[in-house]
Design the sequence.
């Protein structure tokens, strides 16, 4: 099964070099293990845009909402056996954050791709 | 969490650690089959303890410590050479002082050991079936039950297959060795063959009764990716990976909502997985950079790449495909490949040139009962306006087709050809 991970930090403090280093190592291991198919960092949500339809009205809410230059958050696509394995991966990933950047807070959302 | 959920969670955590456990143990014990046994025992230990204690915060460290303790016990019991024992014991002490955590796990490069593991599991001494079962067990960490379900066989059969294969390895003194140099390329062929066998086992199952059928494709892909990362200079490893990525990219488009197969040229290309196609392209390019463009797998991948790159069936580069088939035919003589080449030539140059190839295949014993020979021949004859001959070819093909839907299609085409024959 294919899973999308979306990581959203709860604050705009950039990740420490220690954290970046550990995350890169983890990513390298996952690529070598053939589990990680794709990944990328995302700029803050505040500098993005949202296009919505509400009550039949289409609206574009464009950023930047606040100045924030750091690259924070990101996504990754994994091929895994099942949801349990996907959650175990996310737990491991978040544990790396806890170990390497005490005080870091945020969310790693796990979503399975629809289809076979 | 229900106990079934907990069970699955434990198995998932173990599966993540399994490659590192088995490679560490095989390095320690210099015996791959034994390392595999103890890695399984470690899973049992976790299943026994964690329901009471909860999953430890650093499960990998717990599993590794347990696995190594078991290995040490084994060495003690077996009264192994004192020197080896001392060496391992002192390693153990060091590690108990500094419990392996996630960080050291991440620093631990298991590439060479993993390669050894793959070569051992796929030893040419073992039957293809045994190699496939052993690879799924040792490299992918699938349980015997999972492998059995995937191959639609009783668990006892798979279990026996694995036990016998491991015994064969131990008894032949092949429990711990890595080929190098020329032998490596030769042995790699055996590895790639097994990976492709596993992939096809999942891929050809038109409708997986169980999720593990498609899972076989994913496991094979994963092994392919592992191989390209630990043996990055082997072009055919990249070629096979490209072939599997391309084929897998079409999984969603290969069957209609009723589960019936959809032919490649009739598939909805919007359903093709672009991420996988991109990955396939990268792997194929890598094979080419390594001078492997004419490899068995790379050529097949290049053929599918032509389809993947065409946004509609009409845009397919048939001259290129027919050229690739000619190169493939030059390295491997196979009537089936030759028949495929005829189809490509028929699209690229017209039915006459293709019919010449097909007629040369008429006497091939391997194609005697192959309905696609008659089907292709009928199509070419029809396009040449030789309707009565086309009708006969389609009828004969329909008699040979095993699949009801294909049979109906061929009968319909025979009727069409018959009508055209009367009209002309």
Sequence:
């Amino acid at each position: 099964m294919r899973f999308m991970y979306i990581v959203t930090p709860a604050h705009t403090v950039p990740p420490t070099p220690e954290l970046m280093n550990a995350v890169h190592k983890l990513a390298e291991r996952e690529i070598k293990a053939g589990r990680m198919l794709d990944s990328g960092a995302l700029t803050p949500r505040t500098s993005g845009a949202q296009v919505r339809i509400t009550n039949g009205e289409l609206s574009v809410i464009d950023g930047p909402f606040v100045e924030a230059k750091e690259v924070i958050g990101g996504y990754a696509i994994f091929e895994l056996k099942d949801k349990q394995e996907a959650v175990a991966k996310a737990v491991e990933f978040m544990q790396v954050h806890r170990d390497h950047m005490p005080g870091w807070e945020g969310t790693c959302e796990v979503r399975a791709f629809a289809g076979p | 969490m229900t106990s079934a959920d907990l069970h699955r969670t434990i198995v998932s955590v173990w599966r993540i650690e399994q490659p590192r456990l088995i490679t560490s143990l095989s390095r320690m014990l210099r015996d791959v089959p034994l390392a595999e046994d103890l890695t399984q025992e470690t899973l049992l230990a976790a299943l026994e303890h964690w329901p009471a204690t909860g999953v430890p915060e650093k499960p990998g460290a717990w599993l590794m410590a347990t696995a190594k303790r078991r290995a040490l016990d084994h060495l003690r019991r077996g009264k192994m050479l004192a020197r080896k024992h001392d060496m391992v014991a002192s390693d153990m002490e060091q590690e108990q002082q500094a419990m392996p955590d996630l960080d050291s796990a991440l620093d631990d490069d298991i590439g060479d050991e993993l390669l050894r593991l793959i070569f051992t599991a796929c030893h040419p001494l073992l039957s293809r079936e045994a190699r496939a079962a052993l690879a799924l067990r040792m490299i992918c960490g699938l349980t015997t039950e999972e492998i059995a379900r995937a191959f639609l066989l009783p668990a006892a059969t798979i279990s026996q297959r694995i036990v016998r294969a491991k015994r064969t390895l131990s008894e032949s003194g092949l429990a711990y060795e890595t080929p190098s140099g020329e032998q490596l390329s030769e042995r790699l062929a055996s590895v790639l063959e097994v990976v492709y066998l596993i992939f096809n086992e999942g891929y050809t199952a038109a409708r997986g009764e169980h999720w593990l059928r498609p899972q076989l494709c994913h496991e094979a892909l994963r092994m392919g990716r592992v191989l390209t990362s630990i043996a990055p200079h082997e072009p055919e490893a990249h070629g096979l990976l490209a072939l599997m990525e391309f084929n897998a990219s079409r999984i969603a488009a290969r069957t209609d909502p009723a589960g019936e197969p959809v032919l490649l040229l009739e598939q909805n290309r919007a359903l093709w997985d672009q991420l996988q196609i991109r990955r396939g392209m990268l792997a194929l390019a890598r094979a080419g950079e390594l001078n492997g463009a004419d490899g068995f797998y790379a050529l097949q991948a290049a053929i599918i790449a032509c389809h993947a790159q065409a946004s509609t069936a009409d845009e397919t580069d048939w001259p290129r495909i027919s050229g690739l088939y000619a190169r493939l035919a030059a390295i491997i003589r196979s009537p089936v490949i030759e028949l495929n080449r005829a189809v490509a030539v028929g699209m690229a140059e017209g039915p006459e040139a293709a019919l010449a190839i097909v007629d040369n295949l008429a006497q091939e014993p391997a194609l005697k009962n192959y309905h696609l020979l008659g089907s292709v021949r009928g199509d070419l004859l029809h396009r040449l306006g030789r309707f009565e001959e086309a009708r006969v070819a389609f009828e004969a093909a329909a008699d040979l087709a095993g699949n009801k839907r294909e049979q109906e299609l061929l009968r319909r085409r025979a009727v069409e050809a018959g009508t055209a024959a009367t009209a002309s």
